[in-house]
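Sample pair:
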Amino acid sequence: MTAGFTHLHVHTQYSLLDGAIRINDLLAKCKEYGMESVAITDHGAMYGALEFYIKARKAGIKPIVGCEFYIAPGNRSERNPNAVTKAFHIVLLAMNEAGYKNLMKLAGIAQFEGFYYKPRIDLETLAAHNEGLIALTACLHGEIPWLIGQHDLEGARAKAQEYRSIFGDRLYFELQENNIPEQDIVNNGLIQLGRELGIKTVATNDCHYLNADEAYAHEVLLCIQTGKTINDANRFRFSTSEFFFKSPGEMKARFSHTPESITNTLEVADRCNLEIEMGNYHFPIFPVPEGETLESMFEKACRVGLKERLAAMRQAGTLTPELEKQYRARLDTEIGVINEMGFPGYFLIVADFINWAIDQNIPVGPGRGSGAGSLAAYCMRITNIDPIPYGLIFERFLNIERKSMPDFDIDFCQERRGEVIDYVRRKYGGAAHVAQIITYGSMKARGVIRDVGRALDIPFGDVDRIAKLIPEELKMTLDRALQIEPRLQDAADRDPKIAELLKVAQTLEGLARHTSTHAAGVVVSPLPMVEYLPTCKGKDDETLTQYDMKHTEMTGLIKFDFLGLKTLTVIHHALGHIKSDIELDLDIDSIPMDDLKTFDLLCRGDALGVFQLESSGMRELLIKMAPEQFSDLIALVALYRPGPLDSGMVDDFVETKHGRATANY
């Protein structure tokens, strides 16, 4: 037996500091209620759309991807501070791929062209991008409901006809039952207009939190959003506690006077059949001269690079005929694998912007991670580490039996990293084709205590004392903190305000709090970015993906990591000072790797500012190990991770190195 109802207006945690519904919890509640489909319609953005789509499909629930957009009262480019309302609401749901792409385009236009207090679109953009979309008239802040609420039924009728001219039978009047007196007036007006104009009604609940008992926690969340306290008489608040994810039975009971508005939700759900294409890679378009292919250009670059690398080795007297054969055979193998896997374009793109940076005297790291195991990358100057002397394995980077994208972690001078991103932006079509990746900051255990404490108007000292009781451990949660720190529960038992603080904080813990820009990730698209994912604007006006890194990669867009590394900047400045002070033009790539004074420095633990060796734990390990050669440093960096440290393997290694014990592995 089916639930007989579908929620079509739902705000998840991606309606930042407004929605309090986690996607996993939403889907679990749908299962509990026997609901076969559900929509998400976050405010003005599609941050969680792909995550929701993937998780819902996996859970066996039909995902309806939507968004509650803000509509400018006039033109989206107008900025009228005296307007009665800055923006109206409208709910749009994707029926198919065309609708999904239009949602993404509208989300981008709202951010980049219409932003004024909120990301806005207008009727012009709506008309241009309406294909594949179902429109619901939204809450009391929708334009048609607002006009009815202003007792302007004629204006509402005219506006409804205007919307119907865009959407036809894809327009539905949205009814809500939420104990707000004005809503009853609006509902009656919508039902009357619907009968006159032949526009169907649907029942929604504008869900902002999952359970009825979370209404107070949601009030606190709104206080966090607005910087107000719960005791502020003028704070922004919802005028009812009805905006939770009601069961189908509750919704049917509330709408017993208009049962067709319940069954029409199923009609809408049946009309929404989105299939998002995944599993294909979308490579940027690398310019290929006439008569060439990506494969031929890649192979040529590798062969020329190997010739230059071997010439340098000959000059240094380190190349033997046998070794040369090994290099050539290894490169032949790598070229074959890279071509067969379809990745020559990736290597050419990365080599292009790295070599551009080198030519502009922008410091570039020598390479790290599994990419350092590629001889092809070494030949193309993507890396500056010869994998053969160190026994680095190419198959750890790319394996013909495991189809996955290559991924180079590329370090640039912290001060000039932006220049390289700008070069990529210019080369591949501008901001419409190049975006950095968004990240979401969440309310973690200590942070949510401080946020909720401020909102509840609890004295700072009391909040600070409770926050400091939460252990500073990775992935610490309030539930776990209460289990392992008895003083927390004791404080809650003695003070009702602290008990309330902890209860509300547990409800809000882990919700997304704000957006920021990923430290490294950049994606480049062959077609405009909005063909693959929605975009938004970062704090420095940079183009950001609306999906996080995991879900951005799922779209098939190619990610490049541009890391800004202060160590490279320090080295660059140091080389400049050496040149100006003692007129020595030092080549950092040719310094000796067996310098005794350097190892003496490391043995004393003097490694502050040395990449990957500067933490207190690593400096202690340097003193214990007393490295004598470069391979000791390789072992040290490889061992300094939780598994070997927790197992005692690191201590065994150190003792064995100094001849004080025999390893048992």
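The first helix runs from residue 23 to 33.
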